Amino acid sequence: MVNLTIDEIERLLVAGADRRVEVADAPPGAPAPAAGATGEMSFTHLDHALQTAAVLRQEFPDDIELAVAGLVHDIGHLLPGVGDAEHAEVGAESVRVALGERVAGPVGLHVEAKRYLVARQEAYAQELASDSVASLALQGGPMSAEEQQYFERLPHARRALDLRRADERGKVDGLEVAGLGEWMELVRALYAAHST
User: Fold this and answer.
1) Cα atoms in the Cβ-side hemisphere of radius 13 Å centred on 139
2) Phi, psi (5° rounding) for residue 168?
3) Which parts of the chain are beta strand (E)?
4) Is 66 exposed, middle or buried (0-12, 13-18, 19+ CB in 10 A)?
5) Could you tell me the CA-to-CA distances from 156 to 31, 95, 153 in Å, in that order?
6) E strands within 79-175?
7) pTM (2 decimals)?
8) Residue 37 contacts by C-beta under 8 Å, 6 or more apart in sequence?
9) Which of 103, 108, 117, 131 could form a disulfide with 92 if both were Cys (CB 3.0 to 4.6 A apart)?
10) Percent of the chain with pLDDT over 90
11) Can you tell me the distance from the alpha carbon of 43 to that of 25, in angstroms, rounded to the nearest whole number?
């Protein structure tokens, strides 16, 4: 298990500026998602992190921990050897010590939240970006009724659903939002408050 420090979290997010979000390999027989010829989206991991955090900050101005969860929700993708299916859980574990359960909880459930929303809301499934469509099958597909009931009882399920909805809206090529420097000030303040 990796326990990232605040400096390591920042370094990984910075490294995400050089990596475009990739479209996961679709399972056999699935239609190929629309993306660039290289299988990459038009935005980087850092773009996506900043946009997701900005959406959450705007919608939930009093919940800084949820906005920070948006910033780090895909950090698992930036860790070596972590695949799409496990990136949420590994990412949550990697930030839990530094940022606390109110950040890590929704991060760890954001993939399950996608599976839940796809099972419950047909309109949501139609709004998914091509990278989310491709990864859905690799992550278990839509939840069964039993899985939905279990998910609904989890402590961070509601906040994970908010994070997941923002996740899809944080995929806009060229959208300008606050930079990482501003966010890291908030992350460091949250860390200081969490560690005292």
Assistant:
1) 26
2) -70, -35
3) 20-22, 40-44
4) buried
5) 33, 15, 9
6) none
7) 0.89
8) none
9) 108
10) 67
11) 18
